[in-house]
Amino acid sequence: MSNIFAFGYITDWHRMSADHLDRAFAALADPTRRAIVARLASGEATVNELAEPFDITQPSISKHLKVLERAGLISRSRAAQTRPCRLEGAALKAVANWVDAYRNLWDESFDRLDAFLKSNHPVPAKGKKNGHK
């Protein structure tokens, strides 16, 4: 059985503190922000381009972008009069590594359960006790 701490959770810890991880998950909890992250996965975009598919005001989209930026998931720069946004892959990878550590733990648990169920250990039928219903 592997230990969860042998995975990316601890190895990425120095790059992403618990506070940063909390901010990243809080930012990703919102469907609008997840859609923004998905859009930025295909390349950088201006604030206006990011606001286009949503029926929300410019100040609202800016608030969403600030949350994503504080979480380290995106960065914004200034190019002339635009503020292009780009996805910060390292922060997103740290979140994915943290989740993968738990996925690996669950996979191992299911593998052990599967092996147990395939072994010669009979499993009593549900609802029956001593041959009676």
Number of strands: 2
Order of strands in the sheet with the most strands?
A: 1-2
Average predicted confidence as pLDDT: 81
- Low-pLDDT residue spans: 1-14
- The CATH homologous superfamily is named Winged helix-like DNA-binding domain superfamily/Winged helix DNA-binding domain
Structural class determined from secondary elements: mainly alpha
CATH A-level architecture: Orthogonal Bundle
Shape: elongated
Largest sheet: 2 strands, antiparallel
- Tally of discrete structural domains: 1
Could you give a short description of this structure?
With 133 residues, this protein is mainly alpha-helical. It has helices at residues 8-11, 18-28, 31-40, 47-51, 58-70, 89-118; strands at 74-76, 85-87.
Would you write up a description of this structure?
This protein has 133 residues and is mainly α. The protein has one domain (4-118): Orthogonal Bundle (Arc Repressor Mutant, subunit A). The chain is built from six helices and two strands. A two-stranded antiparallel ribbon has the order 1-2. A hairpin with an 8-residue loop joins strand 1 (74-76) and strand 2 (85-87). Helix 2 runs antiparallel to helix 5 (58-70). The chain is elongated and about 75 Å long.
